[in-house]
Amino acid sequence: MGFNMYFYFCYVEHKVIIVGLDNAGKTTILYQFLMNEVVHTSPTIGSNVEEIVVKKTHFLMWDIGGQESLRSSWNTYYSNTEVMHVYTALEKINVCFLFSFSQDLRKAAVLIFANKQDMKGCMSAAEISKYLTLSSIKDHPWHIQSCCALTGEGCNAPQTRAV
User: Fold this and answer.
1) What is the pLDDT of residues 25-63, one digit of tens each?
2) 34: helix, coil or strand?
3) Which residues form a coiled coil (predicted)?
């Protein structure tokens, strides 16, 4: 009886939305988490949803298409969620508008992956952090790290850091 009550009260679930511009590597990273391998992907129209379980923590991962025509629908996913943003380390586009314009995301934990670190001319996680002025985010937790979705390097953070 005690064990069952312990399990009941220790169950933790996080809803995580994976956002980023089109072709950033969101789906590739999701399936690196899920299967620890690269899968052939095509542009996401709408969303992919997968559950990842680490110990007693369940992550319901919503991979949302990044095409410009789909971005206006992102806010429908924001309620009671954490954010994983996949940022192509080759782009110099400030996408922090996500966090400043949505009341639903003001307290969300944010994990940013600086993807495509294998590409020549990419920015490091530190350079992206400075470019996006992440140090100015004081009201909720955030973390940025470099990764390469194609090799899996740096793609294990959600399993070691609870979002």
Assistant:
1) 999 999 998 888 888 888 888 889 999 988 888 899 999
2) helix
3) none
Residue type, 131: Y
**pLDDT tens digit string along 131-161?**
888 888 888 888 999 999 999 999 874 544 4
Residue 21 assigned as binding residue: yes
Residue 23 labeled ligand binder:
yes
CATH of the domain at 35: 3.40.50.300
Q: Which residues constitute the domain of residue 98?
A: 2-160
20 is annotated as contributing to ligand binding: yes
Sign of CA dihedral 64, 67, 68, 69: negative
Q: Which residues are catalytic?
A: 67
Which of 136-141's residues contact partners 24+ apart within 8 Å by CB, and which partners? 137/99, 137/110, 139/106, 139/107, 140/106, 140/107, 140/108, 140/109, 140/110, 141/109, 141/110
**58: enclosing H helix or E strand:** strand 57-64
